[in-house]
Design brief:
The structure is a homodimer.
Chain A (H helix, E strand, L loop, with lengths): L1 H15 L4 E5 L13 E9 L4 H11 L4 E4 L3 E7 L2 E10 L13 H12 L3 H13 L14 H11 L2 H8 L6 E2 L12 E2 L1 E2 L2 E5 L6 H16 L16 H11 L2 E9 L4 H21 L3 E11 L3 E11 L5 E8 L3 H10 L5 E6 L2 E7 L5 H8 L14 E4 L1 H6 L3 H11 L7
Helix pairs in contact in A: 1-2, 3-5, 4-5, 5-6, 6-7, 8-13
Chain lengths: 418, 418
């Protein structure tokens, strides 16, 4: 299948008289596919001074029925004989540290791995399936986990699946695993890209995903089990089960639903996380307390970001402490006193600072969000969207399937650890 | 009156053939009495190798009807011709840096001031009355304010009442006002004792009292007014007024009443403040939030310490976050996991640490105090006392006169500042 496609690239390039070559990359290129994966990635490389448009034309001709997608540049996605095929234009650069587009590095990765992975293919498959099973596979910004290339490099470095787990058991934040000398990068895990020493292959890996893998690795080594690779499907809780669990916790829940444009996850998730942090900050600045929060993206007819906040403190008394300047700063003191002429108590001095006790603007977290959430920055693509603020009662009344899945995952949040 | 008493000391000492001399100290010795004060302090000094008992005998003979009080040593307090007279045995030391008892320094202070205060008596009187009026006069541990000796030194240093206020206007924490070179002491205000350069005369002054004085000084200089010296008596709120004000704040109040032994304020107040801090700590460690607190001592037939806590958070949900070890500490992780086999949620990883969500032991602050306050250290003389924990309802039902005064002062807490 792959070789057919590579052959077609050459044929069409010759017919059009353009200097293009096809390169098979990704797991299909080196027999490290996970079962169920049906992805074939073929790069169509134009010369460094060539035109990516030529490659795109070839892709379109190979797959007349296709979808055009965009990463840094346009590429063609098509379903061919049951496979998901990506036909990706790139530049055929000589030096991987001087790439012209982000995808130009991929053929180098592919070659580096192909030259070293022979005989270790099964080890890579085990590691990838383990990572998938314990929830850390994927270097997309939603997952923040391990890429396939990173898994391959780890197997090359440690020699086998089990030795990767053994190695990971003693990882600490900032661990460096270098197949080549490289730049002095600070990150939870640093794996210098052997084809580009300025680059950290594990750049997308978050601290928490890294240690989710470490914790699972330790458990597996202590008592190995098929469920690490193929965990039981989580049962989605019914609305009644959700209600009961929420009541048992005794907390308050607030759900923000924000209309979002139809952009890829890698664009929307970072913005949702930023919005989540801003809103948590707003709540805590006003004295409320967020126990935990999470985000979800619902793609239906429209796209909606869901931001869920569980509060341990959601209602506060009328009076609040307002701390003013140190008393030795006479000018600040005068201004402060003029600004608070009839406090509930004070001004008095606490620890050298002037303090007044004044009425609180928002006694309830839900009122604060309804009143103020529009005024804070929620990220480029979420700021303009309509926002609905749902209280616990409203959440529980409107539990559809996607919300049930989100709340189930939220309430059962758990990693493998022992 | 004073000279009569001094004469009596000499007479009795001669009759008993003991080498004692009487020394008039304090404000009576240098015409810096505040009106209303009727205190005469006479020290009865025995030779350095003498016996304080001899002096005490003389004091008893001078005032056959008296009360014996204890500071570091016993002394005689008596009411004579409408004056409150203290007759205090001390050692007649030569060098004030080599005193044998704390009171031995006083005659040196008295002499130092007497030799320099002539013509400035009215300035001292103004300053002391000002300090009294704005609530910062008294170096007892309850007040934490300015002693009479400190006020006198300030007048000597600055030259007049008004110049003291002007000087104080630019005080900052750690200000040094030295009439003599002295030790490198760290304190909110450092005034080296001219008769003992290792000693800070302002040692008892707290940061907040210091700046209460500074703030009032600035206000007075801006618009002087008799009320600084003689403030209006505060109206004690009625139980209904107290209830209304507490409702308006929307907070919870908890009052601890602890039986205390009949000790002087300077012994009990520091312990009450320590107990207050320990209890605040206990409450906040468990997730509750103290908005403000205060203590009071009620001396009636029995002595009771009152510890009042105003809470902005007094009830919490069932679930609470419990943060465990970093995941890279494998041994700690194992122990933590074994200790939390069925959490409400988790274990999961947050910021590299293992976290579980578990049931909270005390959902209400009042239950926490009833259950745990006996287990924390409340200071030597309060730990053994019976403790009553009163909720807001119980407080409001039992507002007697002393509690009304305490709550009035609490609710109207305010310093002069402009």
């Amino acid at each position: 299948m792959s070789s057919d496609l590579l052959h077609r690239v050459e044929e069409i390039a010759a017919a059009r008289n353009v200097a293009c070559r096809g390169i098979l990359v990704g797991s299909a290129a080196r027999n490290t596919w996970l079962s169920g994966d049906r992805d074939i990635d073929i790069f169509i490389a134009v010369p460094e001074d060539g035109n990516l448009g030529d490659a795109l034309e070839i892709a379109r001709e190979i797959a007349p029925v296709h979808e055009e997608r965009y990463a840094e540049h346009a590429y063609v996605h098509a379903r061919i004989d049951g496979f998901d095929v990506d036909l990706v234009p790139c530049y055929d650069v000589r030096d991987p540290s001087k790439i012209k587009s982000a995808v130009d590095r991929t053929p180098f990765h592919s070659r580096y791995v192909s030259e070293r992975i022979r005989g270790l293919e099964d080890e890579v498959l085990l590691l990838k399936q383990f990572m998938k099973g314990v929830g850390v596979y994927g270097s997309d910004l939603r997952t923040g986990g391990f890429s396939g290339y990173l898994a391959e490099l780890l197997v090359i470095r440690y020699g086998s699946f089990l030795r990767v787990l053994e190695g990971a058991s003693s990882w600490r934040p900032g661990t460096r695993i270098n197949l080549a000398p490289g730049a002095n990068i600070m990150a939870p895990l640093v794996v210098i890209d052997p084809v580009d020493p300025k680059r950290n292959v594990a750049a997308a890996l978050t601290l928490d995903r890294m240690f989710q893998f470490v914790a699972a690795a330790r458990c597996f080594l202590r008592s190995p089990d098929i469920s690490f690779f193929f965990p039981l499907e989580a049962h989605t809780m019914s609305p009644d089960e959700i209600r009961a669990e929420i009541e048992r916790r005794g907390t308050e829940f607030i759900l923000l639903e924000i209309d979002a444009p139809d952009m890829v996850d890698d664009v929307l998730y970072p913005q949702m996380r930023k919005a989540e942090a801003s809103i948590k900050n707003l709540l805590e600045r006003e004295g409320f307390q967020v126990l935990r929060s999470d985000v979800d993206l619902v793609r239906g007819e429209d796209v909606r970001a869901r931001l869920l906040f569980e509060l341990s403190i959601w209602e506060l008394p009328s009076v609040r402490i307002h701390i003013g300047p140190p008393v030795w700063e006479a000018d600040h003191v005068s201004r402060f006193v003029k600004g608070h002429t009839s406090p509930l108590s004070g001004p008095y001095i606490d620890n050298g600072r002037l303090v007044v006790e004044i009425p609180r603007r928002y006694r309830k977290a839900v009122d604060l969000l309804e009143g103020e959430v529009h005024k804070i920055s929620l990220g480029k693509h979420l700021s303009s969207g309509r926002i609905r603020t749902l209280s616990k009662r409203e959440i529980l009344e409107g539990v559809d399937e996607s919300l049930a899945e989100f709340l189930t995952a939220y309430l059962n949040k758990r990693v493998r650890v022992c």
